[in-house]
Design brief:
Elements (H helix, E strand, L loop, with lengths): L1 E5 L2 E4 L4 E8 L7 E7 L5 E7 L6 E3 L7 E6 L4 E6 L8 E8 L12 E2 L3 E6 L1
Parallel strand pairs: 2-11
Antiparallel strand pairs: 1-3, 3-8, 4-5, 4-9, 5-6, 7-8, 9-10, 9-11
């Protein structure tokens, strides 16, 4: 499956953005999807993950209550709604897919999309 992330941009602190991860190729509903982010000079961190059916979801503690991950298998997309954004959310955001549930374990994802930059100004 090929993934393409979009929706990044510049937003003020307290604002919202909605990221999308569009998939093409193999049946998207066979894949669990995760969102990760990487700030300048830092490691890639887990943000959220959703299983194939959308019935199991996991969030990093840093985004719980502010971010919501969802998917629409009919449209081959996974979305990340980001509310109450903070300057520390500034990063390049990546989506990734895996045929098994791997949650926060980035190295076990099988394919990655290109990143989309989110910048939150104070």
């Amino acid at each position: 499956v090929q993934l393409q992330a979009s929706g990044g941009g510049l937003v003020q602190a307290g604002g919202s953005l909605r990221l999308s991860c569009a998939a093409s190729g193999r049946a998207f509903n066979n894949y669990n999807v995760g969102w990760f982010r990487q700030a300048p000079g830092k490691e890639r961190d887990f943000v959220a993950a959703i299983n194939r059916s959308g019935g199991s979801i996991s969030y990093a503690d840093s985004v719980k209550g502010r971010f919501t991950i969802s998917r629409d298998n009919a449209k081959n997309t996974v979305s990340l709604q980001m509310n109450s954004l903070k300057p520390e959310d500034t990063a390049v955001y990546y989506c990734a897919a895996a045929t098994v549930w791997v949650g926060a374990h980035a190295f076990q994802y099988e394919c990655w999309g290109q990143g989309t930059l989110v910048t939150v100004s104070s």
